[in-house]
Specification:
It is built from no helices and 16 strands. Strands 1-6-2-3-4-5 form a six-stranded antiparallel sheet, with no helix packed on it. A five-stranded antiparallel sheet has the order 9-8-7-10-11, with no helix packed on it. The mean pLDDT is 89. Keywords: Cytoplasm, Elongation factor, Protein biosynthesis. GO terms for molecular function: translation elongation factor activity. It is found in: Cytoplasm.
Amino acid sequence: MINVNDFKTGLTVEVDGDIFTVLDFQHVKPGKGAAFVRSKLKNLRNGNTVERTFRAGETIGRAQIENRGVSYLYASGDDHTFMDNETYDQFTLSSEQLEWELNFLKENMNVNIVSYNGEILGINLPTSVELKVTETEPGIKGNTATGATKNAKLETGLNVQVPLFINQDDVLLIDTRDGKYMSRA
């Protein structure tokens, strides 16, 4: 059990039978009435974000999340197969479970699987990945004053805004948290 006064960003808790990670929290001490903790929680099972208020001093369950290294092997229809790096066990996840992550997954890529009591909740990607540009318009010299961008399609199907000097077949560093261009690799 954990006291809500000890909330930290990234802490994993169990509330009403669901698993949440703490995105944000604020301790509030009103002039009149009891203190409370206002928090923003992300449900790890379905990805929904909820705002929840707890009384100061209230205790809730702490969820022990397990992270294991796995390799992404291949896609077969809507199923995506992974292999545990230690035991070599294979398992599949659906496209629904990996909606955002599919923008960055390449075959033989190493990621971390997130599970709770044997239930697979999803995967954790590295903060940045290298992806190759498959199509983009050529940049024309002199048609910009500052900071102009163009659209580029990457090998995973993700479309990102990139500077005009990026060409087809360039390898880019992409931030997996927001899907934005960081630099050339």
